[in-house]
Each structure stands twice: as C-alpha cells, then as structure tokens.
Amino acid sequence: MDVNAGNFDKRKGGKAAFKFNSTNDGILLNVHHTVQSQADGTVVRVRFTVAGFSANNERLIAVDHRDNVFVFDLVRQRFWTLSCEPLRKITVIEGLADGRSVALGSKEGVVFIVDLDENCCVRQLKAHPGKIVHLAQSLEFDSVPSEACTDQRYLLAASQDAAKVFSMHDFTELSSISYGLACNNSFRPNTWHWYRAPNGPSLIGHSACGTVRAYRANFKLAKELNAVRLIGLYLKHTPPQTIAFGAGTERTVGHSRELSCPGQNLPTTAQLTADGRYYVLLCGRSTMAFLALDSWLICRVVSFVNLFITHATFVPGQPATRPAATYALAVRTTDNDLMLLNFGCNGTTTNPPRIQPLTVRPSEGQCYKYALAPNGRMLANVLSTGEVLLHGLDTYRVDSFPPAGTGKACVKGRTVPPCGKPSSSGNAAGNAVLRSTRVTKLEQQINALQVQLSEALPTDRLLAILKEYGAYPAKHRATIWRTLQRLPGDAESFGALLRHGPHPCVAGYDERFAGYDRRIVRSVKKTVSALAHWCPVFGLIDYIPSVVLPFARQQPTDALGLFETVATVLLNQCQLWFEFAPLEPFNYLAMVENVLAECEPRLMAFYRRRNITARSYALPLLQTAFAACCGMDDQWLTLWDHVLSSEPYFPVFLVAGFSSIHRATLLAADDARTIDGVFFRHRTVDVRRLVRRAHELMERCSGAAHPRHYFKSFVPLNVGGATYRPVPEPLSDARSTEWPAASTVRPVTSTGSAFSGAANNAIDYTASSTSTATASSLSDGQQPYAPDRAGSYASFSNYPKKLTAVRCAETDALRAEQRRLEAKIVELEKLEHSLQERLVNDLVRQEHQHRVKEVERSLEEAIAREEQRVEMQRKLLLLHRKQLRERESELSHGVHNAKLINDATVRERELDALLGKFERERQREETDLLFAEEDIKLKELELLARYRSGPTVGTAPSGATTSDERPLDQRYQVALEQLAVQKLKLYDEIDRTYCTLGMPAGVNEYTYRTVSELRKVASDAGGERYPTAVQAAEQPRPPKPFLTDRKYTSQIYEDTMRRMKEQVQVLQRLKNDIRKKSISSSD
C-alpha cells in the first residue's frame, strides 16, 4: 500500500492508519512524502534519506531531508511524526535493547536518545564534533564468563576520525579512541562491529590496507592480524569456492571483464555472520573471506563469477537448535540493485546457491540505502527517488526462488555454468505425465532395493561398521536407519491419519518457525499433526515440534519416513517421557540423577549444593533431540547413528555424559547464569567424545541404578510391536520395577473431521478408509493386543489418559468458545466497519456541507471586501486628482515666484553695483575733502603767519595775491552741487527700485514714507552742510570774515558724513528685507 507520510497532521490525534500491501510481490509498504508547494501549487516529493527499525521489530523509523522523523507502528498499523525540536540532520538510526527507544546520530555529532512511546527526546550525547557515521549496540552476552567484569550493554558512536563507547545504563562515556589524520594511530577502521569474545563484548574492525584489529570495550587492543596475508596463505593450499549464476541474474560485465585473484584484492567492507562465528571480509567486488573468530584463521573463501557487490549484510534468522545450513545475505550490487543471496555454509552441493532480486516497480529508482530488521524478516529499502519500500523477506525464501536464480558451486576454483533450460509450454503437459510415471517407477525400484538392503544388512554387521568408522555412510544412512527402526512403510495408515486434517495445535507454527525453510515448516506441521491424531498427548506437549524439527531438516520431502522415524523414537527412546504429561518426566530425570550420583558423585554433590535439578541440564538436550549440543548437521546425524543403534535407554547416559564432559567448567562456575549457559545457550561438543563418555558411564553404572530395569526392549511401529500402558509410578530409588499390564481400551470411532477433538484421535490402531479403531481388554500377564489389520500402527499409551482426556475436552471447549468468540468478533467487526462507514459518510456529508457554507461565507466576505476596495480606490482617485490640482497650482505659483526672485536678484545685483559705485565715489570724495582740508589748514597757517608778521615793505598790493583768497563755500560750490545732483540721482534710483518691486513707500521702520521727504531730508542735510550756498541762493548776505571757526566746519562735515552712512545702512536693510521676503514667498 502506498503511504503518504505528509497526511499525518490531517488525522485525529496526529496519527494516521495504514494497511499492508495485499499483493504477493514482497513489498509490504511503499512510503513516500508528497506535499503541495505553497508558492505555485505544484506537487513536491520530499526525499527520505535514512531508515531503521526498533530492537523489537515493531516499528519502522524513516527520516527525510527536511528533518521530519516518521514512526510506523507495524503492529497497530499507525504512523506519526516525532515532534522533538532538536532532531535535525539525522544520518544513522539504531534501535536500543528495550524496544521502545532508538538512538539517532546527526551530522553535528550529537546522538539523540528518543523514547518512541513518550514521543520525546530523553537524552542528548555530544559524541563528536563531526558527522556520526555509525551507531552499534553491543550484543547480548549469552553467559558472562569469569574474565568479564560486568554484563552491561554498550553503545558505540563512531565518526570519521574517532569512536566512543557509552554505557547503556546511564549513557555515560566509558572510553574513546582517535584515528584521524592528526593522531599517531595509523589504524583507520572502515567499520566497527560488536562480537562475543570470551572476556565480554568486544569490537572488531578492518582498515583499507587489510589490517584487522580486535579491541575490548575500553579500546584496549586484543588482537591484530593481516587479513590479506591470511587469505593468501589459505589460497596456497585450498582453492576458493567459485559460485556462478545464470545469465538471467545480476551481471555487470562492464565493471570487470575477468575474474581477478581473490587474494590480491583489499577488503572494502566486512560483516559478521548471523551466528557471530565468522567475520566475513568482502575483498574487491566479488570475493568473500570467512575469518573464524575462535581460531583467527581464514576457513573459507567464496568467489562470485558474475556478481559484483558493494555492500552485503547477513540476514539474521530465528533462533534455531543449531546453526543454519545456508547463509542468507542482502547485497547491493555495483548497479545499486538490491538482491537476496543464499548459499551453503559448508560449500556442499546439498544447498545450491540461489539469488533473487528484490522486487522494485519500474517507475521506482534504485537502492540508495537499506536496513535489515533485527529478526531478519523485513528490510527497509531507501530508493534514490526518496521513497522507502518495506520488503517482507518471507516471500523471498529459498523455496520460492525461481529456477533462473539458481547457480552451481565449484570448490576447485573452476566456474560451472548452470545446467538445464526451461521447457516450452507446448509439451509441458506431456512432460508432466511422463515425469510422473518415471517417478512412480523409480519409487517402486527404490522401495524394492531398500527391502533387499534391509534383508542384507543385519544389525550386528551395522554395529561393526559403526564401531569401526564412528558413523554410518551418509549415502546409505536413510536405508540403515529404516533397517534399524524396522519401519513398516505403511502409507495407507499414514494417509488415514492425514485425512483427519491439520491438528489445531499446529496453528501457530508458521510464526514459531518463521526463519526456516517453508518445506521444513510444512513437514513439521504435517508430522506433528499426524502424531497428535495418532496419540492425543502429543498435541498437548509444547516441545514435540522441537523434537521433530531436526528430523524434518534431514527428511524435508519424505513425509512417511519422517513420521514413522519420529513415532518409532517416541515409542522406544521416549517411552518414559510422557508418564506425567503435561508435567515433566520425573522418572526419566530421576534415572539421570541416579546415573550421575553413582558415576559422578562430585558433580552431583555440586548440583545438589547449588540446588540445580535435572530439569536444568537434561531437558534442554532432550527437548531438542540433542540438537542443542551439535553444531553441524553431520554431528547430529552421527550422534543419532549411535542412539538408534543402541538400547532405548542410551539417551539417559548421553545426558549424563554431557554433564560429565563439562564437569570442569561447571565446577569452576561462580553463578547460576554461567551454569545455565552451558545447557541453554546451545553449547556444542565433540560428538564422538560424548558417545565414548556415555558408553563409559553405561559400563560403570551398577545393576541397581541401571536404566535398563525401567525400559522395555525395542518395539517396531508395526502390529508386531507391543502396546505399552503402564501405570505411572514415581521413581524413588534405583530398584528395578516391572511394567504393569495394559489396561482396557475403549473403542473409538473417528469422525474424519479436519479439526476433531484430541480425545477422539486417541486410537490404538488406525484403519485405512473407514478410520475405525477397536480395542479389547487385556488382563495381567497377557500379550499386547494385536489389531485385526496387519498394516496398522501400534498405539502409544504410556501417558495419563484420563487427565489427557480431560485436558483435550477442555481444549476442545476452549477452541469452540474461541471459534464462537472469533465469529462474534468478526460480526462485531463487520458491524463496526458498517458503522464506521456510515459515520464516515455522515462525517463526509457534514464536512461537505460545512465546507460549502464556509465557501459561500468566504465568497460573500470576498465580495464585500472587493466592494470596499473599489470604493476606497474611487476615493483615493478623487483625492489624487485634488492633490494633482493643488500641486499644479503650487508649481505655477512657484514658477511665478521663481521669476520674481530672479528679477529681484538681477535688480539686487544692479543695486549692489550702484552701491559699490557710490561707495567708491564717496571714498574718492572723502579723500578729496581730506586733501582739501589739508590745503585749507596749510593756507590758514600761511595766512596766520602772514597776519602775525604784518605787511612788509615792497610787497605787492593785496589785489595781486597769487592764491585764491575766496571763501571755502565759494571755492567748493561746484563740487557740492555735483554731489547734490548725484544724491538726487540716487534717490531717483531708489524710487525706481521700489516701483519695480511693487513695494509701497514706508515698507519698514527704517524708510521714509515718501520720496519727497527723503529729498527734503537730503536738501536739508545739504543746507546744513553748505549753508552759505543756500543763503546765497535765497538772499545775499554780507561777507563774513575770511577766518572762520575751524572746529565748527569740521563738525558740520562729520554730521553730513554720518547721515550719509545712515542712509546707506537704511538702503542695506531694505535690500535684506527684500531678500527675506523673496525667500519666504518661494517656501
């Protein structure tokens, strides 16, 4: 389903719902963030840059380049965004161990610890000054050894130049290491990975030059080696395993034309395998080297012929009883294509390599980044176009790979092309019929051959082979097991059990075994269902699927052989396991304790001192059919070669032998967690050593405590076998007890229902078509009942039938009630769905009406606003016109004033020039007057001298004097008249200036009211200055004496000059007033 992450804020509560994709293309979700641009209304795609999962696999976290952090709840199918303010520039996402928190690394070097339930940031760690490139949480340590000081978890935050380790308890910094260019450390790791070391969680990394270093949590160097040299040494003695795929798979010939030598390529990246046993280096683009972390040696080199990888991650699987037979990797090629690769762990041809491209729609881009879920069932693919695809990896399991993705492996280093081509569709039906006939004939021949082999291989010869080689040949192991167990091969009876349909107890096996191959899961479901129909107690025991699983892994296609093998094992080796079902097999565990008490008294005393019961060290091995102590398939097969070849009580000594082998480790343990880790953490052991120790204990065990007193001999599954119905009795001591005779069995008729009750399936013998079973009563000492059909299975009845019947009835009642409740829930869901649809329709209708009303109201408001705007524009237009007119009048008035000012300025310049001229004339006249005064003074002095000396003899007569003896007013009369004329001209010029300026007379306080007054004042001043001229003009006066008062004459002159200065000042003030008025009028 396509999910637009931008719709979260449009839903109630800030969360939106989504649904998974219903198609079978493997894509569960297609997440994109599409928004509408507010500027131009175009649709904009916001790119996602990083994605990750929480530690509990329930939530997907995606971050886009706008710093929006989205959380997708994959369980409740809701998504929302984190509203934390400081979250920005996120580059790395790591889920923390509690499942509700995640660590987010940013480009600014800050690590944010975010609580997804509270939707807040609880802690900020300033780890580095630069970009955070890697965040990794330490793995959960299975058992804390004595060398480790603590079992706390750590968080690694690495940048390009440094790495720091924080405590997960309080997020305090514990240690750090620097490897930048400014440091002396020459080791610059490309990646960091946590792994389980004997002394606690440790770090491992590699450099670009091929150096691999292992550090402890405090960055103390623990191991350093040269991986390139180790790969070269390995290739000198062992050729690489070469894997080639078909032409239809990923091929990038353009990157490399020839297969380069694996040892010459430097490592580019590295990953740990899912089980943590190997550190896998990707050398170049097409070679993988497996470095064993226990021996620090290269144990395998795989070279891909036509597959070029840039990044690879091992897909973690579900917890299994032993390591998986194949490795699954998510790889990104050089063309940014994402693929799922699967190849065998041991390089054998039993698990051929397969490759499957992850589905990407044609319109989508290529892989930019990807992140795997911790359980390995989901993968988040960040595309180059900015979308996030959530892949469900269950769709891409090995059994669903197409034939084109299958290749072949060659351990000699030579490329082997895939064989076989798909047939045409025209003759497909004919080939299918011919193939079915051939398969039928081949099965008949194989069955006949197996019968002959069974007759030709007696048990004593098989035991000799087992004693000589320690295991049976793998090629003939199935036939040998069939011979040892005397399997009847009754397909008719097995088919009758299958016709009952799947038992209700297998309903949840798909989720329980989600990490296994689908064929194996189907085999387990079919076998457990048949066992539950064969005996009802097997449908109530939780660990029956774990017992069946190892056998199903070895026989995934032979359903009949798998059922008969497991049923024979339950009928013989497990005959005392279900006496107190569904409780623990107390008698069986007591036999184990008795063997340990006699053969290992010190270890048994340790168990009793530490209050460790047999359920702690026996049930983990028994409930997994000893798969927990076998690391490889060959070891488990070898162990069961000995179990099936020995007496039914041999597993008792195997359990005791396992504790005896680990006696030193157990006695040195300080706490119960270390002791439990030996049995519950799938600890492997040498099978041949375990078998030898079990035989030693069996020989050392005395007769009183020997388990053979409590076990019946081997009984085959066919009608010749006995039917065991002993009464459970607690095993209090080691004395031998006899089995009581079988009790009466009620005849039960099968209804043939697919989900019939478990009590109705508790039949003693299975019929073929009618599925009718009958039984008769047996008294003490009688032989077991033999059925009327020679091909029916023997029954298993060593279990509490009444309690089982009661539990089956209760289970049936609970299932019926559950079905009723589920049906009611379905009805309620349908009703809720219909109500939600009605509610949604009502809400949509109401919302539509509300929006229509809002639109109408918005239109009305818009129209009113538009009318107001038009009216306002009209008023503004009128106001603008008025302002234009006012401005026009102001401009015209300003132009007129400017013209007047210009004219006044010109007149003012002329007046200034005239005043300057007058000033120069005045100065010249004053100079002349001064010279005249000096002359007068000299002449007066001369006359005074003459007057004082008197007339001399022989002087000339007075009429003949050489100098002008006239009075001063007569001598300077002409000059004064000229000066008066100039004054009149000056006054006329002033009058013309007033007329030009349009100023009336008396414009200020310093001017005369009329020009005539000014003239009168000037003439008065002239009369005062020259009174003799006035008097001479009016009437003749008698001449005065020649000598006048010199002081009086000077006073008159000074007064005249003073008045002239005052007139000049008045003219200057008049000019200033005119200038000020012109300036004010222009403003």
TrEMBL record:
GO terms for cellular component: ciliary basal body. Keywords: Coiled coil, Repeat, WD repeat. The keyword Repeat applies. GO terms for biological process: cilium assembly. It comes from the Eukaryota. Residues 731-753 are annotated as: Disordered. Residues 811-876, 1050-1077 form a coiled coil. This is TBC1 domain family member 31. It comes from Anopheles dirus.
